[in-house]
Amino acid sequence: MMPEIQRLKKSGNLVFVGGEVEGYSLEQLMRASAELLGRGTMATTYKAVVDRQLILTVKRLDAGRTAVTGGEAFEQHMEAVGGLVHPNLVPLRAYFQAKGERLVIYDYQPNGSVFNLVHGSRSTRAKPLHWTSCLKIAEDVAQGLAYIHQASRLVHGNLKSTNVLLGTDFEACLTDYCLAVLADSSSTEDPDSLAYKAPEIRKSNRKLTPKSDVYAFGVFLLELLTGKHPSQHPVLVPHDLWEWVRTIREDDVGEYRRLGMLTEVASVCSLTSPEQRPAMWQALKMIQEIKESAMMEDRASYGHS
């Protein structure tokens, strides 16, 4: 039985989004065996096993931490979010709301988060991810963000390494996208999330924008490159940023040029002024150009060997 959720009124029904067929009922979901995956600033997340074939991720939004949007506004918002379909977004399948109760249901992703990949079981002296893994994850995440910005008027609003999950083929997929607008702005910010927040929204309750997602992406990219949590990132000018990455990755001498190019993307994305940051599609293009030039160089060097 799903912990704490059993008190739900059976009045409302699950609303399936994005053309999803009704494959299970609220009652089946309530009876599912559930495992607590984590508690975030605005939701508690469970893994729910409805039957052996069907495993879902259920987010239970914390009524005290979410803004009091009317039922209809919530529905419209969830319909818009459910309309987003992309290989680098964890599919949103359904939602539920009744008095004081809101659930958001996603596909379950089996391979954990990028946070676990970068910081998980590794010792403090462990090396950061190989540069090709950094490039692959960065490209996947940039694809997902660029798609959100281009396909809708929505923004992710809460990009961080715990919200990037690894799919069945270890592709990076964004989760928790476009839910941040539902958060109550007066609720206390989780210090781990604060480091990803752009300066313009950190100081005031300014609205989230595509450019604030770009900032979070820059911080996330630095986290991939250094293996350091954003709360440990020093405040540095772009040139010194590269020096810092290089000292951390001193064993990767042969890859310095490529690492330098990725660090440059991270530094332009995390500039203080939103006007100076690139749009997400431009950041994606930079990453794809790095990938293409690396592939051409590798081909050329194989040809000569």
From TrEMBL:
- What is the superkingdom listed in this entry's lineage? Eukaryota
Q: Which residues form the Protein kinase domain?
A: 31-305
Gene3D superfamilies membership: Phosphorylase Kinase, domain 1, Transferase(Phosphotransferase) domain 1
Matching PROSITE patterns: PROTEIN_KINASE_DOM
One MF annotation (Gene Ontology) recorded for this entry = protein kinase activity
Q: What is this protein called?
A: Protein kinase domain-containing protein
Q: Specify the species.
A: Gossypium harknessii
